[in-house]
Amino acid sequence: xxGMIEVAPPRAEALLGIKGVLxxxxxxxxTEQVSARGEAMLSDLERALLELVAVRTAEGGRLExxxxxxxxxxxxxxxxxxxxxxxxxxxxxxxxxxxxxxxLESNVNFDEARLYQEAAMLAxxxxxxxxxQRISSHVAAARELLAGDAPAGRRLDFLAQELxxxxxxxxxxxx
Length: 175
Hints:
Layout: E1 5-6, E2 23-24, H1 31-82, H2 89-105, H3 112-126, H4 129-147, H5 153-173
Antiparallel strand pairs: 1-2
Helix pairs in contact: 1-4, 2-3, 4-5
């Protein structure tokens, strides 16, 4: 520490307790020392950035698998809905005929032709085929995004909103 600490003259020993009387004088750094420190800092920064990329890549891989699993569930449910026997034209026709028949048996004065027209319009509005196709399309688009190298977060967020919208519409139409 000799040469690095500046001390007040001996007669002023009482002043040694006052802040600032003893000061640490840092020696000037050489250009080589500054350069070495800069290189060490850049090396540490590069290592930290590489670790960050590795951690984010691993996290992205885990999230990708979660999203793929969820897409598989959506796809299975969509296929089950598409295969439901109650969706067949014959089943819809039989249900409508039965419901119209019950209305006509109630002895209320209905125009039978008009009643069948209304039933046909209701059946057309209750058809979920379009929603099932859109859901399948969104699932395929999400898989394509995940298979690519480009950032996919915003696009996946949009597809999630679209899937939710189609699922809500499908549920509101389903009987």
